[in-house]
Amino acid sequence: MNPIVINLAYLVSAVLFIFCLKRLSHPRTAVQGNFLGALGMLVAVIVTLADREIIGYAQILSGIVLGAGIGALLAQRVEMTAMPQLVAIFNGLGGGASVLVAGAAMTAALATGRIPGVDALVATMASGLIGAVTFWGSFVAWGKLQGRITEKAVTFPGQQAVNALLAAAILGLSAWGIAAPESSAYLWVVLLSSILGVLLTLPIGGADMPVVIALLNSYSGLAAAGRLGHHPHADHVPRDEPLADERAVRRRGRGGFRPEPGRGLCGQDQVGISGRGGDAVR
Questions:
Q1: Where are the domains of the chain?
Q2: Integer Cα distance of 51 and 41 in angstroms
Q3: Residue 144: Cβ within 10 Å count
Q4: Parallel, antiparallel, or unpaired for β 252-253 and 114-115?
Q5: Do 216 and 224 meet the contact criterion of CB atoms below 8 Å apart?
Q6: Torsion of CA 139, 143, 145, 148, to 10 degrees
Q7: Which tens digits make up the pLDDT trace of 27-54?
Q8: pLDDT tens per residue, range 166-213
Q9: CA dihedral 71, 72, 74, 76 (to 10 degrees)
Q10: Are 170 and 133 in contact (CB under 8 A)?
Q11: Residues 186, 125: contact at Cβ < 8 Å?
């Protein structure tokens, strides 16, 4: 696709998101804001998939029809009094999608022999952490509101200490994943973050679940922004292709720098230089 068309489409998508947030700030225009946000995401997804040739238009249309069908079914069957539960499910699915997308992007980069940059790895670990907390926390909130689990606050002795240890372990595993992306650190980050998401939501009573859902809604957007803020194929360094400085270092010997035959220290071809009143020197 034409780069100008792609950039304009992304610009339109960003503007739609801005108007979406503006419209969502008032109940009378919230429906319009929701529509603008969905339209902006639709534009961004279609342009990205078509530009990168990830899937064809047939798959895109199939996904749109399937998603629209599920959304229409839920809109008809879910009562207005059950909207908080539905929003909780939407938040959870958004967080789960961020976990899967972040992990898939990193796995795809490593499978092609390219190491993601530090900023991409930080975004990946952050998406795994926030997305997993959002996913499980949202479904605990749904269970409390739906009456599937007790609405009372569930606590146990030493719960704060356990949460602190989990958070410290997640940060340590994230650092390990950034230093060694080929390791299984990302899976451990997601696993421990899932446990943390459950433990953070259980101690909150059912009456406060709407506030929790609103907070998890912001987490879900933050997890997605972590991936949108950095292209998955940017700033990757090939494994088997040494950089220019690495090639230069390999030519160094114990006695100092050894240039290639016929080339100068900086890599330029050596040429004859005429001295004043003398012979040409090399």
A1: 1-77, 80-252
A2: 15
A3: 26
A4: unpaired
A5: no
A6: 170
A7: 788 888 888 888 888 888 888 777 766 6
A8: 999 999 999 999 998 888 889 999 999 999 989 988 888 877 888 888
A9: 160
A10: no
A11: yes
